[in-house]
Design goal:
2 helices; 147 residues; 6-stranded mixed beta sheet; 3-stranded antiparallel beta sheet
Length: 147
């Protein structure tokens, strides 16, 4: 491209635009995250208790179960929020059609798993008006101490 004799106020924007078109990567797909909320009680006590979730997708071949989550425990009551990414994890697909199917709830003390519950999205959760999921009834997790 020959730019001699053209004013700089025209040349500079043309160069910037050309570089941005050449150097910018394709924009990634923007998919929503579905919020999964649950609460319940903890029967028994132990040090360093935590409640964590793993969420399995309904998509065949999708093995990712990690979710971003926040949890709190106070006076034997727990509350968990988890964000399930709807973007397909399969390499050949770039769609936003991933849906949760199974929620595994784990009560831990340090690295020890004290209790586990397996819940199904279709029977144990309900859709909110925002399209998210909330547990239909509180669950009880038990501290099983080995003797």
């Amino acid at each position: 491209m020959l730019l001699t004799g053209m004013p700089m106020k025209i040349v500079l924007p043309c160069v910037v635009l050309s570089l941005s078109l050449v150097l910018s990567p394709a924009a990634p797909t923007k998919c929503i995250s579905l919020l999964i909320t649950m609460e319940g009680e903890i029967s028994g006590s132990a040090d360093n208790l935590a409640v964590n979730l793993e969420v399995s997708s309904a998509t065949k071949g999708d093995l990712v179960t990690d979710v971003r989550q926040e949890s709190s425990i106070a006076k034997g009551h727990f509350h968990v929020k988890a964000w399930f990414n709807t973007q397909s994890t399969l390499v050949s697909q770039e769609r936003c059609d991933r849906l949760p199917q199974i929620v595994v709830v784990k009560l831990t003390s340090g690295s020890r798993i004290l209790d586990t519950r397996k819940l199904r999205i279709e029977s144990d959760f309900r859709r909110t008006k925002d399209g998210d999921y909330e547990l239909t009834r509180a669950i009880v997790l038990k501290v099983h101490i080995e003797k």
